[in-house]
Amino acid sequence: MTYCVGLCLKDGLVFLSDTRTNAGVDQIGTFRKMTLFQDKDRFFTLMSAGNLAVTQAVKEILLQGQLLNHENLWTVKNSHDAAVVVGDAVKQVYERDHLALEKAGIDFNCNLIFGGQIKGERPRLFNIYSAGNFIEATPETCYFQIGEAKYGKPILDRVVNFSTALNLATKCALISMDSTLNSNISVGLPLDLLVYEKNSLKPSKLVTLDESNPYFQMIHQLWGEKLRAAFNSIAEPSWSGAQKSSAISAPAKKMVPVPVHHRPPKPKRAQSSAKTSKPAKKALSKKKA
Fold first, then answer.
1. Domain residues for 67?
2. pLDDT, tens digit, 9 for 90 and up, residues 13-72
3. Please, what is the end-to-end C-alpha distance for the chain in angstroms?
4. Residue 242 belongs to a domain
5. What are the start-end ranges of the E strands in the chain?
6. CATH number at residue 208
7. What is this structure's pTM?
8. How many domains does the chain have?
């Protein structure tokens, strides 16, 4: 398992990925999930989750610059076409490997976050799926997650929007990762962090964070403390209604208790078997006479 998050903001892009792979409790490894592609007029970042053999094969096709429908990452005219190239690389690996994977009972699992900028256009971010198709981030939906996403999502939803400053977004991404690390053992350090500033066309803020990094240590400690402090500062529910601000029961909306039958009711016997009808009784008495 892994966790990667990418954010597309007005001032640039933020990419964050862990490095843990997990093929069972006794097969845990460290592999980079982030790959950079740079030329004089373009800069791209790729983050991957899923089957490691599949994602490494896709990455290698892109690094080698293989032509896919006569294009590669170094020749495309815009970032959308670059995402198409990445999707075509996924399809090529699928065509080569999916039958063998099916025979082995293994799913073709490949999820990618891909983003960057070509000179003359704005920074863009894409989420590319196992089928090679993709969606693009928008100002309304400005981030993507792949891998173990659920633990780190709440903080992103509450804090980040398209206008969020890069430093604040970086802090939020790290808190999102810390929440995931704290709740899922299949996500682990070290982390790769890239903050891409719009129009720079280079990875000016790129760092690997491990357990000794002072800023990430501070995030880990303070976030837990602040969460507990915020939790303790919220009033407990008042069942008596003495405190209106914390009253939890509203008399006008009380629910009626649901009756519970400790033993099921006895089934009613059919009328014909329980009692003989009056006409039938008369017929029987006439026969005896």
1. 3-21+30-212
2. 999 999 998 756 677 889 999 999 999 999 999 999 999 999 999 999 999 999 999 999
3. 90
4. no
5. 3-9, 12-17, 20-22, 28-30, 34-39, 42-50, 110-118, 124-128, 134-136, 143-147, 191-197, 205-209
6. 3.60.20.10
7. 0.85
8. 1
